[in-house]
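To the wet lab folks,

You asked to see what we're planning to order before we commit. Fair enough. Below is the target structure as tokens, and below that is the sequence we designed to fit it. If anything looks off to you, flag it before the synthesis order goes out.
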């Protein structure tokens, strides 16, 4: 067994879909993680999900062999992040929630600690004003599932410093990720393209142009989309998708980014996709 990677100590804030993805990725690469969320109940469920995702990643051969997997540490207070070398914020896609978390984290950690936001759509510079040292904040848009997709989108905010860019590259390399760097903008590259596409696909279903399976089937079979936009939406989480579209719409004015009624209705009905068991598709049989 090889020892833990020296140097990196991660704190992940938010133990939902992405926080558990990122935690499994890091633990599977031998990087210790403290995972922070709002309650012990949420953290207990998150720990179960991390264990499941670790097994999934191992079975799929997506983790390096021979690494010691550190024991997951959890906490309900951000003070648990005080000793981290990097903090990754993966909380709900609401600007006020993220700025509050980032402000509190930056007041707790030592200067020189890398701060990463895993936001889908909020410009990094919008959040940089809330942290003590804006040069330490960088965007990393991990894909879902983070342990399956090697490529990540890294966002260099206008105030992100060179040291933070060096540190983030070092961390992502240690986690076996490949990155492409983009400049700051609402939705960056991926979600400026992907989220309006998903919204358009949902609107076609809403308008009765074609059912869910046909929209996905055409995008898969004719355009080579890996899973179809609506199955992708269920994987993302429809609640998160609506929050992200709202962020995008408010900042770009793009009418294609205004969440369509079908998406809003599904979210109001608690149909969030895979994580709730139902969305565009039914996942009653697919439980972890
Ligand atoms: N779902 C995806 O496919 C995906 C992909 C890339 C990026 N993202 C982004 O990652 C972030 C997290 O998304 P998600 O899908 O994991 O959301 P999620 O709803 O599954 O999880 C969010 C978690 O944040 C926690 N949280 C909220 N406020 C908190 C606080 N103040 N302190 C600690 N924890 C808090 C919640 O309890 C919840 O567990 C969002 O910014 C989202 O846009 C999501």
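Sequence we intend to order:
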């Amino acid at each position: 067994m090889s020892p833990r990677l020296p140097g990196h100590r991660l704190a992940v804030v938010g133990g939902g879909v992405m926080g558990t993805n990122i935690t499994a990725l890091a633990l599977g690469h031998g990087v210790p993680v403290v995972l922070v969320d709002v309650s012990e109940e949420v953290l207990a469920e998150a720990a179960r999900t991390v264990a499941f995702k670790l097994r999934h990643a191992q079975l799929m051969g997506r983790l390096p062999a021979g690494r010691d997997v550190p024991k997951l540490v959890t906490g309900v207070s951000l003070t648990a992040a005080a000793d981290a070398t990097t903090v990754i914020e993966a909380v709900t896609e609401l600007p006020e929630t993220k700025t509050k978390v980032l402000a509190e984290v930056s007041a707790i950690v030592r200067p020189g600690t890398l701060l990463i936001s895993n936001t889908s759509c909020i410009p990094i510079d919008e959040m940089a004003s809330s942290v003590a040292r804006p040069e330490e904040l960088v965007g990393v848009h991990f894909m879902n599932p983070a342990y399956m997709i090697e490529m990540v989108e890294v966002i260099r905010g206008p105030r992100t410093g060179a040291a933070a860019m060096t540190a983030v590259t070092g961390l992502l390399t240690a986690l076996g990720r490949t990155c492409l760097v983009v400049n700051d903008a609402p939705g960056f590259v991926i979600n400026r393209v992907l989220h309006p596409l998903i919204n358009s696909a949902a609107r076609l279903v809403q308008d009765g142009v074609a059912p869910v399976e046909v929209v996905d089937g055409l995008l898969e079979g004719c355009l080579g989309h890996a899973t179809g936009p609506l199955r992708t939406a269920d994987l993302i989480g429809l609640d998160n998708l609506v929050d992200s579209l709202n962020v995008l719409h408010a900042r770009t004015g793009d009418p294609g980014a205004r969440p369509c009624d079908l998406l809003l209705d599904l979210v109001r009905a608690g149909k969030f996709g895979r994580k709730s068991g139902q969305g565009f598709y039914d996942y009653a049989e697919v439980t972890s």
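Structural context that might help your review: The CA atoms of residues 182 and 205 lie 33 Å apart. The mean pLDDT is 96.

Thanks,
Computational group
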